[in-house]
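PROTEIN DESIGN WORKSHEET
SECTION A - STRUCTURE
LENGTH: 125
TOKENS:
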């Protein structure tokens, strides 16, 4: 089994609803997201997936969130923009495209979303 991982970063504002504490107030993070792919077969070049292609798949998702108040963007107008929900959002948005792109040869294993250097959430199915 092979895995490849690409990291990306974005800086955004958010606040947590239904939360008691300082994070109920608007504040910002320099987020980091790691998307890990998994598969058994390599392509003709010996790659599970070109890092470049994975970066291209992640880019629109990152650009959508970067320098925005995440609570004002769908689906986070109603879904709390926690690290957990953001990790799942990255998983779902990238999995859709990767399945089509590789006809199922490569799948997303997990997405890990760092809010701070010491706090992160991971989503997988
Ligand atoms: N399981 C989760 N817990 C918390 C989340 C989350 O997304 N999932 N989010 C927050 C807040 O967004 C907060 O900004 C981050 O919390 P925290 O790690 O406490 O941030 P600090 O860097 O300020 O940590 P200190 O140790 O208080 O300095 C809260 N919890
Ligand atoms: Zn926060």
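SECTION B - SEQUENCE
RESIDUE ASSIGNMENT:
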């Amino acid at each position: 089994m092979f895995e490849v991982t690409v990291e990306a970063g974005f800086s955004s504002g958010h606040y947590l609803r239904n939360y008691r504490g300082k994070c109920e107030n608007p504040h910002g993070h320099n987020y980091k997201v790691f998307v890990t792919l998994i598969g058994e077969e390599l392509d003709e070049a010996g790659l599970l997936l070109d890092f470049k292609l994975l970066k291209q798949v992640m880019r629109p998702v990152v650009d959508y969130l970067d320098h925005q108040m995440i609570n004002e963007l769908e689906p986070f107008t109603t879904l709390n923009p926690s690290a957990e929900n953001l990790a799942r959002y990255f998983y779902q948005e990238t999995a859709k495209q990767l399945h089509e792109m590789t006809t199922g040869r490569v799948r997303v294993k997990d997405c890990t979303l760092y809010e701070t250097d010491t706090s992160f959430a991971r989503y997988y199915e």
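SECTION C - NOTES
The pocket of zinc ion (ligand 2) is lined by residues 14, 23, 27, 29, 115 (CB under 6 Å).
Strands lie at 2-14, 27-39, 107-116, 119-123.
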